[in-house]
């Protein structure tokens, strides 16, 4: 089940008694893009794993960075991923653009309920190159945003949010995960902010 907010304009012509009125309606597209002060700021997050179920010593660390946090449909999200593999097995990073829909409802006693539905955009899943045991690698991914995708929404009844769900596949162990939240808005909103220029450097 997926939700949406739709608008339309309806016109009605009243006719004499015992005659059905004429009605006509047309769809109205309304974009209310989210705007915040840090749209063009870079974001860097890290995750590490050192506990393994089987005979696999060492640790695995993943650093990920995007140059800004806001994008529009049809654009590419360019992000950099650094994997430091100090374990005894080969690992493979991958990324999925994920949409999360949250429905907000109220009971009769006005108690708010949050019902989450997660939807992964399977066609946007990308897999990187393997990182061998005892080595490190830095890879750049370009994840396309579908043109017809819904923009981020934060309303009293429906929230739509996005993140880049990063995974390091670890054989015979629980994978390492990291989420980079992003905002999908309109092209006009992105273009009205001057891009934040930062030199990318993973340490």
From TrEMBL:
SUPFAM superfamilies referenced in this protein's UniProt entry, alphabetically: E set domains
Arrestin C-terminal-like domain ranges (all copies): 56-189
Q: Out of the domains of life, which is the source?
A: Eukaryota
Q: Name one GO biological process term.
A: protein transport
Q: Which Pfam families does the UniProt entry name for this protein?
A: Arrestin_C (PF02752)
Q: Which InterPro entries does its entry note?
A: Arrestin-like_C (IPR014752), Arrestin_C-like (IPR011022), Arrestin_domain-protein (IPR050357), Ig_E-set (IPR014756)
**Single GO cellular component term:** cytoplasm
Name this polypeptide is given: Arrestin C-terminal-like domain-containing protein
Source species: Oppiella nova
Q: What is the lineage of its organism?
A: Eukaryota, Metazoa, Ecdysozoa, Arthropoda, Chelicerata
């Amino acid at each position: 089940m997926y939700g949406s907010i739709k608008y339309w304009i309806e016109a009605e012509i009243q006719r004499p008694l015992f005659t059905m009125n004429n009605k006509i309606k047309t769809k109205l597209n309304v974009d209310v893009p989210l705007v915040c002060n840090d749209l063009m700021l870079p974001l860097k997050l890290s995750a590490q794993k050192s506990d393994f179920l089987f005979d696999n010593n060492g640790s695995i660390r993943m650093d990920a960075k995007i140059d800004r946090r806001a994008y529009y449909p049809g654009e590419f999200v360019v992000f950099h991923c650094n994997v430091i593999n100090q374990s005894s097995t080969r690992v493979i990073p991958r990324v999925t653009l994920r949409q999360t829909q949250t429905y907000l409802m109220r009971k009769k006693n006005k108690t708010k309920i949050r019902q989450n539905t997660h939807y992964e955009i399977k066609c946007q899943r990308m897999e990187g190159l393997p990182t061998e045991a005892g080595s490190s690698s830095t890879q750049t991914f370009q994840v396309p945003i579908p043109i017809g995708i819904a923009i981020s929404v934060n309303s009293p009844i429906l929230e739509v949010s996005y993140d880049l769900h990063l995974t390091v596949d670890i054989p015979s162990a629980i994978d390492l995960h990291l989420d980079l939240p992003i905002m999908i808005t309109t092209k006009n909103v992105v273009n009205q902010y001057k891009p934040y220029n930062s030199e990318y450097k993973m340490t």
